[in-house]
Write a structure and sequence with these properties.
Elements (H helix, E strand, L loop, with lengths): L3 E7 L2 E8 L1 E6 L2 E5 L6 E14 L2 E15 L2 E5 L3 E2 L6 H16 L7 H19 L3
Parallel strand pairs: 1-7
Antiparallel strand pairs: 1-2, 3-4, 3-5, 5-6, 6-7, 6-8
The protein binds adenosine-5'-triphosphate.
Function: Produces ATP from ADP in the presence of a proton gradient across the membrane.
Family: Belongs to the ATPase epsilon chain family.
Membrane topology: Peripheral membrane protein
């Protein structure tokens, strides 16, 4: 079975560089499934999970948006943040979710709703990836 090298990079450094047989992710245009030999492509990603499948192994990564670059033998993901389930601080994600929900419920006019909405999405995404629900 042929494989793709998957490389995930953030401003803090590389998160993963490993071979897999399939990459599934959520681009802004919709769900993508990438196999070796895929045509070259660049796509913006949503706040979502990257699902990786290899021979006898699988992994998942929570990303807060970013870009996917596909080449026939390589997938590169550039993201502002990217965490494997084992790197997710579940209490921090729960607190971030509660904080964002409180801000969104607040009726004060000076709340930055878009910012709170994005923070809520990041927190829910981390909780989903940690709990394996996506
Ligand atoms: P918080 O409000 O808790 O900081 P956030 O969504 O605003 O959450 P980001 O700006 O997306 O945080 O990320 C900042 C840095 O902190 C990134 O390096 C990211 O990987 C890390 N990070 C954020 N939340 C978590 C978490 N729950 N577990 C592990 N790392 C996290």
């Amino acid at each position: 079975m042929s494989t793709l090298t998957v490389s995930v990079v953030t401003p803090d450094g590389p998160v993963l560089e490993e071979a897999f047989e399939m990459v599934s992710c959520k681009a802004e245009s919709g769900e993508l499934g990438i196999l070796p030999g895929h045509i070259p492509m660049v796509a913006p990603l949503t706040i979502s999970s990257i699902r990786l499948k290899g021979e006898g192994k699988s992994d998942r990564i929570a990303v807060s948006g970013g870009f996917l670059e596909v080449r026939p033998d390589k997938v590169t993901i550039l993201a502002q943040s990217a965490e494997k389930p084992t790197d997710i601080d579940i209490d921090r994600a729960r607190m971030a979710k509660e904080r964002a929900e409180r801000r969104l419920q607040d009726k004060q006019a000076d709340i930055d709703f878009k910012r709170a909405e994005l923070a809520l999405k990041r927190a829910i995404n981390r909780l989903d990836v940690y709990e394996n629900n996506f």
